[in-house]
Amino acid sequence: MKNSFVFILNIINIEGELPIEVAPRHFFQKADAEQIDKIKKMLDIFVPFGFLKILNIRPYEVDIIKVPGEKPSSFSFKYEPLPEDKWRYWVILFEGTNKELQDIESAAFLLKHDIELGFTIFGKNSLSSGEGYGWHTPSLFSFFDSPSSNEPAVLVSTNEIREIPENYHLIKKISLDHEHITRAFRKLRDLKSLPRLSELVTTGYFSIIESLVTHNPNLTESSDSLKHQIRTKIPLLSKRFQRKIDYNEYFNESNEETIWKKLYDYRSCIVHGEHANFIGSLQILKDAKTVREFLYETVKLLLLLALREPIFLTDLKKC
Question: What is the CA radius of gyration of the chain?
Answer without folding.
Answer: 21
